[in-house]
User: Fold these one by one.
Assistant:
Number 1:
Amino acid sequence: MHRQFLGKFNELVRISDLSSFTYGDSLRDSIVKDIYRAAEEVTKKVVTQKSQRKITFDKKIDDLLTSKIFGYPIMILLLGLVFWITITGANYPSQMLANLFFWLEGKLTYLFMVLGSPQWLHGILILGIYRTLAWVISVMLPPMAIFFPIFTLLEDLGYLPRVAFNLDRLFKKAGAHGKQSLTMSMGFGCNAAGIIACRIIESPREKLIAILTNNFVPCNGRFPTLIALATIFVGGLVASQYRSLAATLFVTLLVVFGIIVTLIVSWVLSKTILKGIPSSFTLELPPYRKPKIGRVIYTSLIDRTIFVLGRAIAVAVPAGLIIWILANITLGDKSILSHSAAFLDPFARMIGLDGFILMAFIIGLPANEIVVPIIIMSYMSKGAMLELESLLEMQRLFIDNGWTFLTALNVMLFSLFHFPCGTALWTIGKETGSLKWTMLSALIPTVIGIAVCFIVTQGARLLGLVF
Amino acid sequence: MGLTCESCSRGVLKKKFNLRCGEKFVIALAGNPNVGKSTVFNELTGLKQHTGNWPGKTVVNARGNYRYEDMEFVLMDLPGTYSLLASSVEEQVARDFICFGQPDVTIVVVDGTCLERNLNLVLQVMELTHNVVVCVNLIDEAERKGIFIDIKALEEELGVPVVGTIAREGVGLEELKRRVLNVALNIENLNPKKISYSKPVEDAIKGIEPEIDRILKGKLNSRWVALRLIDGDNTIVNSIYEHIYDKKTLEIEGEEVLVNA
């Protein structure tokens, strides 16, 4: 039976070979032409075109947004505008949420006392888990709830392909694929999503470059860290009415720096371990579409914000627990946490951080959003029990623990350049199917981060710059 | 349920392709990139596959279900393609699914603002299968650009059901579901427009079509296979081997719709 089938299949192969031999490519053009002609005929019969006004209007906008002179400034301006709206808009609700959470904390503590629960239980549940949760929600939720919808709005409008169009030339020069600018943009939302989006790049070489460099743009887990630190330490340098503006400028600068590093690393990769010529592609500029506001808000709030926040909470709860335990079990005269931090401290100091910060980055591997909460918890567990009611309190806590402008700068830089979070690494492993590339994707940004922080720190110290 | 794959004409074939269809109709969703396929998909299934205004947004084949008139439909969101000539991975994936997955109905979503280019794909899909419903999406955008499409005339020209939609606002989707059901039940009057090719091509088709028909025994549209062969497209021979002789199971499960992607 099977043989009979195969016999027939061989006949098909014979016909195929014969046709290839007889016609080669000679009829292909004619076939395609006939399809086009048929489509044209049908179209002529059913379509009436009244005016061209809208099209020329779209084209005018495109000429501006993708122009050689205005393209980049508009892009950076829009990026800055998004950050500015996020930073100014997030201030007030953050404060409100924080007040609410710490009012509730008081009530919960009271409840624990009334019930006569042991000290350690209150410690674990309230000071460990609840505080971390409260911090994650009050600091992360407002910026995400503002940033995601605006970003989705830009995507829905059709601005992203214009960004890709603008950046295409740069990525080509870096030996990478122009579509990488799209996957990079997706990385602003979530690096894991950006890495999955790399599937749109067909060439395996360029796909790998895109995957390996996706982590250089800060995702939403890292934006709140950047925004909070920039507001405190950069905004703190100027008069209070310019605070948000200064913070915005700085965050924008950081992101642009991240993009530059993306290009440099892509270039180095394409000249060394991933050699090759960039393949060309046609990117069609889609029409501008009026976004569906309701849908945008729904998808960006429910699907993205709640998803990212949910993940942060899921990770923060066990992390809060572990930190509290580490901070409260003592070996000799110090807690385990202090021992580990002391071990990391000499190295951390060289790159302008301290042992607690470096450890927070390591413990924060599952999700970037919990790095700052871990730092806060580590500091608080050392004795000074502060209620973090506002960014001002946070600033005081950091300064009390020896932070300077340089420390904050290095934390922001290291946040931008370090190993991808657990989810992103897992996604890279799945997409590349190779342990080697996954390891490399963690190694490259970490090495860069250490190098950048080292140069900044040592440079500042050498020049005697005191911040 | 009485009206299932068993009762439709290709029910037996489906078993041969090991397609897990159960008692559901399988619907393929094809179209050029960025015409709103994912939006149609979301509106029909109630899922929230992320949509975005850029071509190639859909990188995974999403699968979803919907019910209409007490019947179950499995909807496959195929990658966006400009043709079925298998010159890229996406095109081959889309072609193989329509070809060997034997969906009960193939919906081709087209962009009302540039109908002509989109019709190329429609005509190619119609060469492959007769069970086509054309969904002219973005008619509001087209009208704003001063482009008016006579849906009725288009339906007559193409010989398959044509529905005008504004998927983002849910306009026309009831009608789309109704026509899809009709085609699945074989109660639409289908008379798909055939592309007539130049004489050398038609002669070449005539030369090999009967033989191909004898070999494939109606498993595939022999005229279409003949066209691919004289076109010099060898990928179809491999696909036929894989799906018909090797009986490779066609994956219609697709990947889970990623909430955050």
Note: The radius of gyration of chain A is 27 Å.
Number 2:
Amino acid sequence: MARPRALATRVLWAVLTILVLGGVLVAASTWWNGRQAARQSYDRILLGAANDIAESIRIQNGAPLVVLPVSAFELLAQAPEDRIHYEVRGPGGTRITGIDTDTLIAAQPGFFDATLNGEPARFVQVTRRFVERDFSGPVDVIVGQTLRARQAMALTLSRDALWPMALAGLALVLIAWAVVRRALAPLDAITADLAARDPYDLTAIPTDDLPHELQVPLTALNRFMARLEGQLDAMRNLISDTAHQLRTPVAAIRVQAEAAQAESDRPSRALDRLLGRTRSLGTLLDQLLSRALVVHRTDSAPRRVVDLREIALEMIERDDHPGLSIRLEIGEDPVTVRADAFSLGEAGRNLLGNAVRHGQSPITIGADRIGPEARLWVRDSGPGPAPAVRDRLGTRFNRSAGSGETSAGIGLSIVHAVAAAFGGRLDMTADETGFTIALVLPGEEDRTC
Amino acid sequence: MRILMVEDAVDLAEGVVAHLGRAGLTCDLAETLEAARDCRAVQRYDAIILDINLPDGSGLDLLREMRASADRTPVLMLTALAEVDDRVEALDQGADDYLGKPFDQRELEARLRALVRRDAARKEEVITLGSLTYVLKDRSAQLGGRQLDLTRREAAMLDVLIRHRGQYISKARLYDSLYGFDDADVGVNAIELYIARLRKRFAGSDVAIATQRGVGYRIGPADG
């Protein structure tokens, strides 16, 4: 599909079309006017010459005698390029004198068009009536001239008229260009502003001093951004409120259960279960909030260049894993991606958490770069989940038989959400040495020293 | 050892008080900031457990008051928010440690004891470098009067660097200092990242870690 044309181009094309159409009309009318003017002036010359000849006819011995006057030819000589024709015919069309032609000219009274030796020409016929004693009757004088001088004159007239018009047209195009540019300048400014804007910047675009037509869409856009920001704020508040309102009671339940257990003399299965459930409730709460926070942040937090090696290190630093053997496998060079460090940290934490819960020690955490892709991976020495389970992994609240009471299946869905948000994917491979799960993200060109 | 717990969720607080009591720690309970101020007026405490959200204000206000009046009683903040910003703010206001809800009571007890020990140790073996104070005994550090929230490995590396302040320490030597953390092996490439983490913590202060290519790292006063 062709790219839609720019607004300025569209307006300019319209202006140009109008100008060209107008130009054609004006040129045609000028040409027609020039021709009329040329015809009128040369017709007068023809008529003058014909009248001169007619004046010079005398009757001698009962027959018309033509003495061709020089003035007539001087008149006709004003069109030096043209061939001329003259003829004097007596009554009944008998030829008295004239220039021979290839074809007989079918004369009509007044002006008429005909061909002169195969060339278009203009003729005039002037009739003089003699009523003398020895001759009476009409004598027709026919004078003709080819059209070259007329055409040349028409052309000169039109050209002289058209030159300034063409210049005016050109000036109009330039003015139109300037006007269009000027009229669209605010639009260009807004376009530049929007292009330079951070995608997570939801502050309103200033609409003062803008034309009315632009204020309407911009106000709508500003309203929309304000609503979006309101939603994001509400989400943020909801997350922190939920965290606060739920964590304190969960903490209290846990403390009470621990107190009850400490005070009772004999072990109670119910109390143990209560305690276990309360602990996993805390974990669940953490994960739910973490997921909500990750989803919220991928919408609202600006993306920065992050070194996946630092995320891997933070995974090891953040939580203690007593009794487990964990190795960090990183290279010397940064493994950079463009993402949100907090979200990546949560994803990594869940990957490690899964390996600790379901996998076998030793566990290796690593970050590396393969071609254009950056990977953050966790490998444990276990066989990994069964293929059937693997396909369903990552859907929220998917719990397999082995998940146990401490997991709600949210962990991997966090990782999936993070992968999706930053244009990556989740890779799982199992071989004899163990099971590797990797968060694969498009790598960022390394711009640190 | 006498502890003050400032917490408005009475059932939670009473459970904790009972647990600490069993562990031999005497613990008073204040449900509001007002009650906490009254308690502190009549009794000296070895440590304070402070909730952030209280009916008559924020626990951070009390913390600020204490620190403004040069009261160095160790404070452990309880926070319902696990977000990083929250913890950073608590530590910035002068808290010595924090714990997110819900928490393990044994951990709370252990941390309280550590705080009190650190408070005692502060009067003993301390290395001072500019605005950085390092307590050798428990490997804790304060920068400009604020407790640094160092991880165990960060603390181990800072320990080596600061004991040999002014000298360049090789990467391999720093890596050796991490020996003994048997739960995880981070590899020698991680040293650079740990140095970066420490540098981030010292950013803007008068303490800096210099790098000599091929030789190692050195902690010292920031130049210029």
Note: The longest helix of chain B spans residues 105-121.
